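Action item from last week, closing it out:
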Amino acid sequence: MTLSTPPLLAHYTGTCSNYHPDCIGHTPKVLFNIGFPMVTVGMCSIVIIFEIIYEDCDIDDEKKEIIGLNITNHPVTAILNYIINIALSYIKPWSARFAIPSFFSVISVFLFLFVPYKEEGVMLTKGIDGLAKESPITRGVRVLVASISKNFHKVDDQIRLHDQENRQTSLPRTRGLMFLDKATIIVPGKSSEEHEKHKWTLCTITDVEKTKLAIRMAPLIPSIVLCGVIISICNTYFIEQANTLNPKIGKWKTSSCYLLATYDTLKQSMKIITFLFQLASPRAGISTAMFFSVLCCITAAKVERRRLQAITRHGLIDKPDQRIPMSMYWMLPQFILLAMVDSLLEANAKSFIGRRYKKALRLLYPFLFARAIIGAGILVGIFSVHLAGKFSKHVGRRVNWFQETLNQSRMDCYYWALTVLCVANFVLFLVLLFYFKCTSGHEYKS
C-alpha cells in the first residue's frame, strides 16, 4: 500500500508524482488492491493467535468466555491506538501514513520471531474445539449425510446409539430434530470400530447435538447480520459525510479521526455495561443493540437532511470539494449510538452462542462465529446500497439516491429505508426469541 502512492514508483511507471487522480496508473492500483487481502489475512491471524495464547492462561473457561480476553481490546492498547491514529491524521503525504505503520510492523514481526515462547504442542492435537479436527460446517454436513443414509432406520430404545467417549465434553441427547439422531444409529452386524472408519456414516451424539444447536440458531442470524450492515456505515458514508463538513472547533482544526476516536473510546467504555448484559441476558444485550441501531439510523437521517439543507442554502450542490459551513460534530450523536451498537452486539452475540454450546466449544468458535456474522453484515451492506439504488428508481421521484457526489445524493432517504428495516428486524428478533427458548446454557450439562 505504501508503494501504491504516486511519488514512490512514478519514475518506473512513467506517471507523475503528484497526489492527483491522473498520476495514479495501473500498477499503483494493482498494488493497492493487493494490500487489502494482505491486511485482512494479517488481522485474522492475529485474532486467532491471541485466542490460542489465552487458552494457555490458568483461567476458568466460563470466565474467559464471559470476559472475552483480548489484548487488542485492552483499554491501554486502545488509548495508544487513538493517539497514534490522531497523530497520523495530521501527516499529509499518504506514502508516510502507510510507511510508518509498515516500519513498526516489520519490527513487530522480528520481535515476535526472536522473543522466546514456550509451545506446549497439546492444543493442535485436540483440534480447535478439543473434540475433532474439523470445522462446524464439515461436521454438520457429515451428520446430515449420515442421517440420510439411515433414513429407513428408526430410533427407539432397542437401537444402539454411538455415544461420545469423553464424558467431560460430551453432550446429552435432546428432543427436537429427531431425524438427525439417525446419524448415531449403530447398524446391527457392524461394530463401532467398523463404523468409525467411515465417519460419514456414523456420528456421535455430541456431533448431532452441535448440529441441532446450529440449526436452532439459524433463524436468529439474519437479524444480527442487519446490525452488521449498520455498523459498516461508520467507516464509509459517515466518514465521507464528515469530510465534507467544517472540522473546526473555534480556531482549532480537527479531522474525522476525532469522531472515530470518540467512537472507539465509547466502545471501550461500554465494556462494563456489556459485561453486565453478558452475565444477565445476552438476548437482552442483542435486543438493546438493535434498538440503538434504529435510533442511529433516525439520527443519521436527520443530520443528513440538515446537511443537504445547508448545501442548498449555500449553493454547493455542484461544488463537492468545498467545505460545507456546518460543524462536523453534528454527526457526533450517530457515532455514539453506533458505538453502543457495535459494543453490545459482538460481545453479546458471542456470549449468546457460547452459552448454547456450554462446555462443548471453547472460546474460539463463539468469538469467531460472532465476528463472522457481523462481517457478513458488512458485506451485505455493499449489496444493500445496490438494491437501494435500484429501489429508488421505482419510487418517489424515480431518481437513484446514490449519485456521483454526496452533495447530489439522497443519503437521508437511504438512512430512512434502513430505519424501516431495523424496526422490522427488531420486531422479528423479539418474535423469534419468544419461540426460540434459550435456557442460558442449562439445557446441556456434562
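Closing note: The chain has three domains: 6-114, 127-214, 217-435.
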